Structures are given as structure tokens and as C-alpha cells.
Amino acid sequence: MTVSVAPASQYPAYRDDPDALQSDSPLAIDDKPSPSPRRFNKKNLLLLVAIAALIPVLYFFLFWAPSRKSTAYQLTPTVKVADYPTELLPASSEGRLIFIGDIHGCNVEFAQLLETVGFEPTQDKLILLGDFISKGPDSIAVLEMAMKYDAACIRGNHENTLLRRYAKKHGQKFDNDVRDRLEDGTKSGDLEHFDDDDDDDGEGATTVVGQSAKKTKRKAGGRHAVHPHGGQKHASAHTEDDDDCMLHEMDDTLESGDFDPSTGGFVHVMADEKKIIKKASPEQIEYIDSCPLILHIPEQIFGPDGGDVAAVHAGLMWDVPTLADQDPAVLLYIRTLLPPNNSTASPSRDGILWKEVWNDYQETLPPSQRRTVVYGHDAKTGLAIKKYSKGLDSRCYKGDYLTAMVAKRDGLGGWKHGFYSVKCQVHDPKLPGYVDGKF
User: Please, which domain of life does this record's source organism belong to (predicted)?
Assistant: First the structure.
């Protein structure tokens, strides 16, 4: 058998020269390396991180912040004096005016007090004497109840502080920042450390029964009510004839609150007010903003000798003849006056209680010029009933009582009134028996 071998010239060129392989040949193999994918270097990574961080910032300024600003309630000028509408005054003995002292967010006790007085929304009218928010378990619930029952309200120092902070948060102007003039020699004196309460943590309370008093210990739970003109339930009655009926009179130990005596400056944080601002609806902020500093009631609720009535949070200066001329800082913070002329509010509890001077001065005036003040704020003094002043702050936040004064027509052309109280839980975390109910 003969085997023929093809000459070398007939072999495909690729056998000796791979570069000679044609790309269109069925045997062609691409031995060239493919380009490697672009690697992520550090510079590109940093760029992506910067873009990712910029997206939420742009969203905040372009979308979220403008929408928040547009939905914020626009504060209105502070009303110093408002006249209570005469058409809302009870026309008969069926309806009543119900004044309530500092609630401080104690919503459960607020509801209990309304139940205790037998509140009838269609006939009775509520008047809140300021500091109805802040510090207690649920200020939002208190606001909801107040608005539900169309309660008239007075601006207290805590409402004023909340509005100031609300204005700052939303880039608005606030026209009642009394801190800027508390040390300028005005009649308000230096009251800045009263931006919070200064009631102490004392363990005892004085309850006055008629003209006799005895020392009692605070007890948790329970409640008591005092009915007008001697009727009573679980408590002693307080009458108009008591020269100075004081419930829960405490010692003079101050708490720093907003003011640090060691530094002479503000240290106030009040986280509650920040929570309220976050949780409150524009309508609730509007309600707080609507509260005047003074609510004038042109009615002789306390008899012809008592004159008309001014409802205010802290008190009035005795030597300022008109309500419109009263200093807003005094209206929000006053407790005591400095001797010898008692014409300047004290920056501490040194001096004499403003109500003492007020009552003495009213006796020197003709009956047509006299005025009775209904107020709160002074938790340390407690329930303090005098002829021309009715103090209703009885330290509910500290575990004492929440108090109401109820006034109704007597059917003979005059008025009669009485006092109701309910026992409060301890809502101050610094005190024994504290009940944790924060919202």
C-alpha cells in the first residue's frame, strides 16, 4: 500500500503560523484577551457616597421643610385683656361658671373633677386659669377635653413658654417674650427664675377647717369634694367667711426649675413642652394661642363689695389701676412683693405675698372700684381663699389636689359659690409614689 503525503505547501498556514488563521475560518479561535471590566476606585466610591448623602438633604429643604412650614399655625398677637362674653354668663341658677386651677397635664384628675362637680356641657362654662399643660401625664388629652367643652382659658407661664418655643421652631416672631425685660427695673422686677414652678417636695400639708388647722400627711389615691355652702363629701367645707383658707401650705424651699441660683441663668429644658409641640395639632396650638393674659368678667360674682372679676394666672399689681397697664411678666409669674413700698415683684419668695397687699388695698377703695382676682400659679401656698382673691392652684402635679371654684346664681339677684377638689396621683418623678403615665 502506498501512502502519499501532501507537500508542506498544502498544509494550512495556521499549522506553522497561528497569526495566519483567518477570522472567517470555521476553525478560527480568538486568543486575544477580552478587556477587563472597569474597576471601582476609591474616588468613584466617595462620589457615590456624597450623592447618596445629598439626596435626603435636598429632599428636606425642597419638600419636607416647606411642607412643615406651610402647615404650621401662624401665631397671632398676644391678647392682654379679653372680656368674657356676657351672653355666656349663666342666665339662671341652672348654669354655672367653673374656674379650675393649674391642671399641668393631669388629664385623669381633670376628668374626675368634672365628674365630681357634675359638669353639664350644655349649661356650665369652664374657665382654666393657666398652666393646664406641661409636666403631667398627658397634656394633649387635657387640650382635647378643653376644646371639646369649649373652655375659656388663661395663658400661664407654661403656655407662654410653649408658644415662644413654637415660634422659634417655625421661624415666627413671638411678641410676649417677657424674659428680655425682667431685669430692666420695671415693676415686674427680676422674675426670670419663675419660668417654672418653685413648689417644694414637702411631706406635710395644712388643711384648714373653718378657723382651725391641722397638719396632715399626703395620701395616695382617693378624692374629696366640697359642695357649696357647707355641703361636703370626704372633706371640709371652705366658706367665704374664712379670712385666709389655705389648703396644702408648704415651706419655702425652692426648686431650681428654670433658674439655677448658682449661675443666675436659665437651665430650663422642659422636655414635655417639646413633646407637646411635636404632638399638638395646629388647632390645639391655636387654642393655646387664643388664651388671653387676663379674662375680665364684668359681673359681681362675689357680691356688690367684691366688684368685678379678673381671672389671671399669677396675680395683679395692686397699684396699677387698669388691667391694660398690668405688666405681662407680673401676670405670668408674680408671687411676692418687695418692701418697703410693695410696688415691685420679688425675684424670690422674700417679701410679702401679693394677695395680702391686694386685699388690704381693696378695702381702701369705694365698692364701685374694687375687684376680685381668681388665679392659680402659687402651688406652694396652695388653695388660698380671701375676700378679694381666690387662689386655686393646689399642687395636683405633686400629688395633692386639683381644685375648682363653682359660681352660680342664687335666684335672688346674687351669686353663691363653693369649692370642689379631687385627690391627685403623684406625677412628679422626684417624689415617692410617682405614677409613670407620660405620653
Answer: Eukaryota
Burial 110-123 (b: 16+ CB within 10 A, else e): bebbbebbebeeee
CB 315 within 8 A of CB 393: no
Q: Is the dihedral of CA 308, 417, 411, 146 positive or negative?
A: positive
Would you say 45 and 293 are in contact if contact means Cβ atoms under 8 Å apart?
Answer: no
- Distance, in Å, from the CA atom of 157 to the CA atom of 131, rounded to the nearest integer, reads 7
**Residue 71 pLDDT level (bands cut at 50, 70, 90):** confident
Bridge partners for 384 per DSSP: 246, 391
- Confidence at residue 272, expressed as pLDDT on a 0 to 100 scale: 79
The strand pair at 125-128 and 152-153 is best described as parallel
CB-CB contact of 374 with 359 (8 Å): no
CA angle 177, 183, 186 (to 5 degrees): 90
Helix axes 271-279, 157-169, angle to 10 degrees: 60
- Per residue, the 3-state secondary structure of 38-53, as one string, reads CCCCHHHHHHHHHHHH
CA 425 distance to own-chain centroid: 19
* Residue in 249, 349, 364, 262 with CA at minimum distance from that of residue 307: 364
Specify burial of residue 202 (Cβ count, 10 A radius: 0-12, 13-18, 19+).
Answer: middle
Provide the H-helix boundaries in 39-122. 42-59, 65-71, 107-116
Buried b (16+ CB within 10 A) or exposed e, 266-284: eebebebbeebbeebeeeb
Domains of the chain: 80-423 (3.60.21.10)
Q: What is the pLDDT of residues 180-212, one digit of tens each?
A: 554 443 444 444 444 444 443 332 222 222 222
Rounded to the nearest angstrom, the gap between the alpha carbon of residue 431 and the centroid of all alpha carbons in its chain is 21
Q: What is the pTM of this model?
A: 0.70
- pLDDT tens, residue by residue, 265-311: 333 335 678 889 999 999 999 999 999 999 999 999 999 999 999 99
pLDDT at 312: 98
- Using DSSP, state whether 331 is helix, strand or coil: helix
More confident residue, 219 or 171: 171
Give the SS3 label for residue 437: coil
